[in-house]
Design goal:
Blueprint lengths: L1 E5 L2 H14 L4 E4 L9 E6 L6 H4 L5 E4 L17 E3 L4 H19 L2 H9 L15 E5 L5 H10 L3 E6 L8 E5 L4 H6 L3 E4 L13 H5 L5 E5 L8 H9 L3 E6 L19 E3 L9 H16 L15
Parallel strand pairs: 1-2, 1-3, 3-4, 4-5, 6-7, 6-9, 7-8, 9-10, 10-11, 11-12
Length: 308
Amino acid sequence: MSFVLKSTEERARLWKPMFASELPELEFHVWPETGDPQKVRYLAAWQPPENLAENFPNLEVLFSVGAGVDQLNLASIPENVRVVRMMEPGLGEGMIEYVLWAALSYHRNMFQYARQQAAHVWKGTPNVSSSLFRVGVMGMGALGTPVLKKLSQFGYVCHGWSRSRHDIPGTKSYAGPEELDAFLAATDVLVCLMPLTEATKGILNKELFAKLPKGACLINCGRGGHLAQDDLLLALDEGLLSQAVLDVTDPEPLPEDHPFWKHPLITLTPHIASSSHAETGGEMILKNILQFEKGAEMVGEINRSSGY
């Protein structure tokens, strides 16, 4: 029985001794070296090798080394293979820090002050209480929930929207398509933390922007595919939105002549909002393998039919 890691050198360096200590009977291989393909039961990767069924006929669990699984073509993964996304503390901590930075920067006019500095303008504006800002998070899962909890602690009026209702202290929960319009109408700062699926692709579009209060701010930490790019430019030009903070784009990176690079109301960051910490990520996968071996539930296992 063996485990194959297809990822970074850092993860390989840290994980190999961890696995040797906790599961010495489990052979550990680093891609492209796999040992006997017939013995591979576990694979960890961002994007797995092609032809999984042929290359690893006895594979039982595929671990994503990131929080998302939308980079995976689930249709190409054998139905008997269970798929688990990364769930470890570093992911949540990083996302909390990023969204809090973006929300606070918008709230305290830091994006505007940066533009003023570039234009040599010295002009302050009155500070406004956080209790007058309504922050709405689309996606109330493993990342959205801790983000909402932290935003609430900073005094923001917090709303969340997802497929099903959630009970999060300090947050009003909206659920399903029938409650999306009410959620948007009550949102001054919109944060996208949804998985990318066929249902959510292009959801950040002109129809959605028009339902937000005029001059709202968009923070997209989900996936670039959530955003209709031309619609964002139009919404900014027409004043429907006053600021966009994008940590994700499609493609990544954007072409050098893309208008997002120089748009004064768009702040770009290179997909750095959150990433799994190598050491704690390895610990989480080890725990899940032990859970799997006992026949218990694994943390982060997705519903193959929905991608969640």
